């Protein structure tokens, strides 16, 4: 039998100074512990001990030159966490906050998320502490090429398939894929999120935000409620937030906030026009990390150095980065009557926030379920690449919707409590865990 406290204490001892990894492991362990303790095969197979140890961690040096001709050194990583369900799969993050602990938490989460998608993908994550803010296009290209010069030794279309994440969009994927192709003479789609003309899938850029909205629509419907007319707070202004505001608008809801490191925008008319969406993309692409200019452009309100969770809304969608919504923010949302929280960033809510939502019976969708649409369409991009064809928008969107529906159904199946309340976090963890654990047992050790 596993005892959660003893087990987590041992994980902490073995992984010092990795608070995000411990947070993610603890959150999963607490919700699956009964399933593990009730199953003799999981106990005999020491399944939890095996799940908190990544298969492999690769770190490497990234040397590059800035526009002033100065030599720069960053650290690159790839965490190949678990490949029982398929090749390691997960994004690359370029952000100054990146540490090994960050990438271990992300790869751990990715393993269960990918399991939920129903597609054959294992879990991995990579990145660097490189900060894209203020970098020129030439600097981005030099960094990406240097990063890939090392990374290419460890990845491949059947072994490990990276993609974008924070700080890595289509441009960076292009630079990295170009270098990979040059070194390997190989055009088999080793990265997803590629450009449309060279193997990318339609809807991949929008998929994370689209998927989160499809998932949210199902959550709302399951309550006998309607999505149309809901007011929504979104944080972030990058790729994920962009997909989310577009789909929310299409489905009849109104997104009234977006945010950046400088503060948040309150746009009571809604972030609901092509012009506003295009402006978001341009703001993000400028590499300045600010949203304030949106306020002047569209006559909206800018609130400096604050988070959007103080705006009264029906639904909240954290779409920026881990732990962006804390216990205090959660209390404010609950006080303002928010009924649904859809974590669209990975572990966007702190453990305290999660507890506040649970106690207030707020319906809370965890990132590994709600944001799985991005990696799901990455999986569909891999399929298209191996078949050497490309599907239409209708085909990809139909598949994405079906996958999000299946994830929602899995969460409800495993997360429904005796009084009918759906604990989506518990449901997602148990459903994601079962597949991975059973495959590990099938394959032996
Ligand atoms: O967190 C994520 O799921 C992603 N960054 C997407 C990963 C992928 O392989 O598309």
Low-pLDDT runs of 5+ residues are: none
Strand content: 15-25%
Structural class: alpha/beta
Rg calc: 21 Å
Q: Assign an overall shape.
A: globular
Hetero groups: (2Z)-2-iminopentanedioic acid
Order of helices and strands: HHHHEEEHEHEHHEHEEHHEEHEHEHHHH
Work out the helix count: 17
Can you summarize the main beta sheet? 7 strands, mixed
The average pLDDT is: 98
CATH fold label of the domain at 207-370 = Rossmann fold
Instruction: Give me the side-by-side strand order of the main sheet.
Output: 9-8-7-6-10-11-12
CATH architecture of the domain at 207-370: 3-Layer(aba) Sandwich
Terminal CA distance: 20 Å
| Portion in helices | 40-55%
The beta-strand count equals 12
| CATH homologous superfamily assignment of the domain at 207-370 | NAD(P)-binding Rossmann-like Domain
CATH class (first level) name of the domain at 207-370: Alpha Beta
State the main characteristics:
17 helices, 445 residues, single chain, alpha/beta
Structure described in brief:
This protein is of the alpha/beta class. The protein has helices at 4-14, 19-37, 40-44, 47-51, 100-116, 137-151, 170-184, 207-222, 239-250, 274-285, 292-298, 327-335, 351-359, 367-370, 372-387, 393-415, 424-443; strands at 56-65, 71-82, 88-94, 123-128, 160-163, 231-234, 254-260, 263-266, 301-304, 315-317, 340-342, 363-365. Among the domains are: 53-198, Rossmann fold (3-Layer(aba) Sandwich), CATH 3.40.50; 207-370, NAD(P)-binding Rossmann-like Domain (Rossmann fold).
């Amino acid at each position: 039998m596993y005892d959660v406290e003893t087990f987590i204490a041992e994980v902490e001892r073995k992984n010092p100074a990795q608070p995000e990894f411990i947070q993610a492991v603890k959150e999963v362990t607490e919700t699956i512990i009964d399933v593990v303790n009730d199953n003799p095969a999981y106990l005999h197979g020491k399944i939890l001990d095996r799940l908190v140890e990544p298969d492999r961690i690769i770190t490497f040096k990234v040397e590059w030159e800035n526009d002033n001709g100065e030599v720069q050194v960053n650290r690159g990583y790839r965490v190949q966490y678990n490949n029982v369900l398929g090749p390691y799969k997960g994004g690359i993050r370029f952000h100054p906050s990146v540490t090994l602990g960050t990438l271990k938490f992300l790869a751990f989460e990715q393993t269960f998320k990918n399991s939920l998608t129903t597609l054959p993908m294992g879990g991995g994550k990579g990145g660097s502490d490189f900060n894209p803010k203020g970098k020129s296009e030439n600097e981005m290209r030099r960094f990406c090429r240097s990063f890939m010069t090392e990374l290419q030794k460890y990845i491949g279309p059947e072994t490990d398939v990276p993609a974008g994440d924070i700080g890595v969009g289509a441009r960076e994927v292009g630079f990295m894929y170009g270098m990979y192709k040059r070194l390997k003479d190989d055009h088999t789609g080793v990265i997803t999120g590629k450009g449309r003309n060279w193997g990318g899938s339609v809807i991949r850029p929008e998929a994370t935000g689209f998927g989160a909205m499809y998932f949210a629509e199902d959550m709302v419907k399951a309550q006998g409620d309607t999505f149309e007319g809901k007011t929504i707070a979104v944080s972030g202004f990058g790729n994920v937030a962009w997909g989310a505001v577009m789909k929310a608008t299409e489905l009849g809801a109104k997104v009234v906030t977006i945010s950046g490191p400088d503060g948040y925008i309150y746009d009571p008319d809604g972030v609901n026009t092509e012009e506003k969406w295009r402006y978001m993309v341009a703001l993000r692409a400028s590499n300045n990390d600010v949203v304030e200019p949106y306020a002047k452009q569209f006559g909206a309100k800018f609130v400096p150095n604050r988070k959007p969770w103080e705006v009264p809304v029906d639904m909240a969608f954290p779409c920026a980065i881990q732990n962006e919504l804390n216990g205090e923010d959660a209390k404010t949302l609950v006080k303002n009557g928010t009924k649904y929280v859809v974590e669209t960033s990975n572990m966007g809510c702190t453990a305290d926030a999660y507890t506040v939502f649970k106690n207030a019976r707020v319906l809370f969708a965890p990132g590994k379920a709600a944001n799985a649409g991005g990696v799901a369409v990455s999986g569909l991009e891999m399929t298209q690449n191996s078949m050497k064809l490309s599907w239409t928008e209708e085909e990809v969107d139909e598949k994405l919707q079906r996958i999000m529906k299946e994830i929602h159904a899995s969460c409800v199946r495993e997360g429904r409590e005796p009084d009918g309340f759906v604990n989506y976090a518990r449901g997602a963890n148990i459903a994601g865990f079962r597949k991975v654990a059973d495959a590990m047992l099938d394959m032996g050790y």
